[in-house]
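Just curious. Protein, please.
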Amino acid sequence: EVITRLLDGKVLGWVQGRMEYGPRALGHRSIIGHPGRRGIQDKVNGIKSRQSWRPFGPSVLAEHSDAWFEDSDFGPFMTFTSTVRESRRDAVAGVVHVDGSTRPQRVDADAEPQWRSLIEAFHDATGVPMLLNTSFNGRGEPIVCTPADAVSSARRIGLDGIVLGPYLLEL
């Protein structure tokens, strides 16, 4: 169901397990979308109240990094930039900056199982081994913590739904 909604251009909140530590969404408190869907960057920038020129980063299956990035020596924390191979940019335009760069998260085989499974299912459906991933919060707000925070934030910022543990909530 989640993959079907992403394929339809929906933008979803993703809340799984405990909070993460750090400035980036790494699969526990994320806003997710189809990185190649036309208009996705504008839609998510509207949700996040961000400037249109600001790119989003992808969470990418580690074993596909070399095929999609010129420099695949990035880590699991979205702290380094990499250049998307020119031949692949159109397929993931929603996570590519005007200079061809992005700030990816490498998702290793032993990473968070639910997060990894979601990206694997998306890859199986599309051939694209990554998802647009940004932190689940509105402008000037901390990343959501509790389920109540997630529902309140999702309604306020205009998400299409939330995956909250095993449940898909439509908004």
Notes: The chain has a mean pLDDT of 93. The first helix runs from residue 2 to 7.
